[in-house]
Amino acid sequence: MIRISPMSPRAVSSSRRVQVRRSGVHGRGVFVTQPIGAGERILEYRGERISNDEAARRHPANPNDPNHTFYFSLESGDVIDGRIQGNSAKWINHSCAPNCEAEEVRGRVYIFALRNLEPGEELFYDYHLSVEERQTARLKREYACCCGATECRGTLLYPKKRR
């Protein structure tokens, strides 16, 4: 795939290219309002940067929905908490057949289009959600996916690598 440099003028995004509204997949979603080309940076995932320990201390934000968070793990081990000082990127829903992807660039997380996107399309990326414990059928149900993609895994959990 062609990747536009994050410093390229064309890579600069405008939040007016997307808007948050009710999603048919889950809660709120982020929708395209202007055409976006494949490889373009759409927006940055923003929020308060906290340690993994602090993220664990804050969890769950909503005891009635303990598996729903706005956390984004960084390569450093820190976490972006999109619930605090976050932006519309926190509302991007998961799909097993995503049309965009999240990429960490120098400690910042950007959302890039995987293909050309047209106004009205909802943005989706694969959360690649991982957990420490064994991925049992019960755990997979707790993290059920409702993306509706033909190739849906049925869970937000990303398959563990076999040893």
Describe it for me?
- By secondary structure, the chain is mainly beta.
- The chain is built from two helices and ten strands.
- The protein has helices at residues 52-58, 137-142, and strands spanning 18-22, 28-32, 41-45, 48-50, 71-73, 79-81, 93-94, 100-105, 108-113, 124-125.
- Mean pLDDT is 87; it is low at 1-14.
- Largest sheet, strands/sense/barrel: 3 strands, antiparallel
Number of helices: 2
Order of H and E elements: EEEEHEEEEEEH
Please state roughly what percent of the residues sit in beta strands, choosing from under 5%, 5-15%, 15-25%, 25-35%, 35-45% or over 45%: 15-25%
Number of strands: 10
Shape call: globular
| Radius of gyration based on Cα positions | 16 Å
Note the gap between the termini: 29 Å
| pLDDT < 50 stretches | 1-14
> Which strand order does the major sheet show?
3-9-8
